[in-house]
TrEMBL record:
Signal peptide: none annotated. It comes from Cottoperca gobio (Frogmouth). This is Palmitoyltransferase. InterPro entries: Palmitoyltrfase_DHHC, PFA4/ZDH16/20/ERF2-like. It is found in: Membrane. The chain crosses the membrane at residues 57-81, 87-106, 185-208, 228-249. The DHHC domain is required for palmitoyltransferase activity. Pfam families: DHHC. Its EC number is 2.3.1.225. GO terms for biological process: protein targeting to membrane. Keywords: Acyltransferase, Membrane, Transferase, Transmembrane, Transmembrane helix. The keyword Zinc does not apply.
Amino acid sequence: MQSSNHRLRDMDQHHPLLSAGADVETGSLAAAGVMVGGPHACHAGGNRTLWFIQDSCGMVCAGMTWFLVLYAEFVVNFVMLLPSKNFWYSLLNGATFNSLAVLALASHLRTMLSDPGAVPKGNATKEYMESLQLKPGEVIYKCPKCCSIKPERAHHCSICKRCIRKMDHHCPWVNNCVGEKNQRFFVLFTMYISLISAHALGLSGMHFFTCIKVQWNECSDFSPGVSVLLLIFLCLEAILFLTFTAVMFGTQLHSICNDETRGLNVLQEIERLKNEKPTWERRMRWDGMRAVFGGSPSLLWCNPFTGLRLRRLLLLTHGRRGGSEFSV
């Protein structure tokens, strides 16, 4: 655990375990069947979990995200590009837009189905406490909600019902927390959604400009009224998504480059109020990017399929359901 110079301090939901005899709720280890990650996980070795949060609001928002992206694909392909008489214009724009849409949806899936950095549930047991071999003066903290030992810069999510390492926020549009292990995919998701939104706006403007010069019947296989309604809704959707995701993309890059998380901000605020010396040193900007995206800068940073093992994913989908996640 942390040295005496880096004792964890927090405000309300962090109760110190000053003795190894802390009580654990009955059945807490049974609830740990949905644990993922963590070097001291209490589940059986080799047990894997397919992470999926069973939250009604989150599932509806995630479904709406897919519906809106697929709607944009329908309008771009069948209203604007396929009826176009310019073959290369349709081919290049179709390939670009559909490729970006696939990358956006893949990033969404990776964000939604990836463990965001959950702390093993129910690991605050007497046996585990004794195995830590704490030195005199060392302090650790227990989350009273999920009965787990809480690392620094971790926060409890009331929707995921778990403590999440380096938790940024819980996003209903991806039905998951954004944390240590899936922030990369969330950044890619916001980037690709902003790109296809900007592309859709540009194509819509070109289509309106072209159809004004000629008859609307020659621009689209749909009637003029239907085409205009579809394009107006697409433009409104694109403007909304572009504004939201571009701002979110910028704030995510800023927090990564400046090594900011909710947990660190809480610690810094406590240290400021207590007039204590900072216990955290910020990383250099590129160090933060490397920590989130992995390795040196390359095109692989933009690939949401990196590290995906299809065979393992297919095996996980046959697992049983338990707790608030699908688990094996």
